[in-house]
Protein: Aspartate carbamoyltransferase
Organism: Oliverpabstia intestinalis
Amino acid sequence: MRHLMSPLDFSVEELEHLLDLANDIEQNPEKYAHACDGKKIATLFYEPSTRTRLSFEAAMMNLGGKALGFSSADSSSASKGESVSDTIRVVSCFADICAMRHPKEGAPLVASLASKIPVINAGDGGHQHPTQTLTDLLTIRSLKGRLDNITIGLCGDLKFGRTVHSLIEALVRYPNVKFVLISPEELCIPDYIREDVLKASGHEFEEVTRLEDALPKLDVLYMTRVQKERFFNEDDYVRMKDFYILDKEKMKLAGPDMLVLHPLPRVNEISTEVDSDPRAAYFKQVQYGVYVRMALILTLLEVKVC
Ligand code: NCD
């Protein structure tokens, strides 16, 4: 039985198959409409979510299955002190697969060790968010036609943004990917990503503060929200929250084919006036998230559709 804790749990070849499957689902949704008849996904969300939880539930429903779960720790037995290991043992009796989001780094991994069903990490604290990365890879590959030979700018909260950590880990496996890390000093990428992932891989990267300088050289701009819930101090958050605002003026500095991605939710970091720019791909990205989660459910449940 396989779980998904990190994007590295799949080899590059396996990822290629998964993304191909997601594109086939996009083209032929009816072929997959009964692939998971009678199956259930449990979504155990101890932290707020709109997209990720609903996208897992929609993915399973699109495959003919059903969804159950909870959307906050308060409404689960966690509020009575139950451990994630006990919760997953119980949920293993109710569902065939589970997606778990938790504020503590490593909680889905702990759950997977006690689980009788595949567990998907749907975001663990400031650590990883592998299914957002699968979404990002599918979006880039579908809209750019490749995952290698790209210059990607990651902008905003690179310290606490788990989507950024997972995406960098995934992209260093492709040749000639250049990274421009755009953040204020206080929100720069954690040391372990800089040293053990970027430097260790030998990929070219630079760390800058000004978005304007980076824009002209990017194929993809990945904007992120300042992660309010991970700050210890409200004043620091208020000081940082509007550090970057991508607007129409700044978009003039970017190339005609630069994709703008964002895992969402957006706060102020992308002005709504950018939404109508053909380079804005963050709502398409949400749709790709459903296809890739459908592909992931089929893969982890080992369901083959001919
Ligand atoms: C992201 C997350 O939860 O890390 N959201 C998402 O799942 N699409 C990004 C964020 O909350 O800023």
About this structure: The first helix runs from residue 12 to 27. The mean pLDDT is 96.
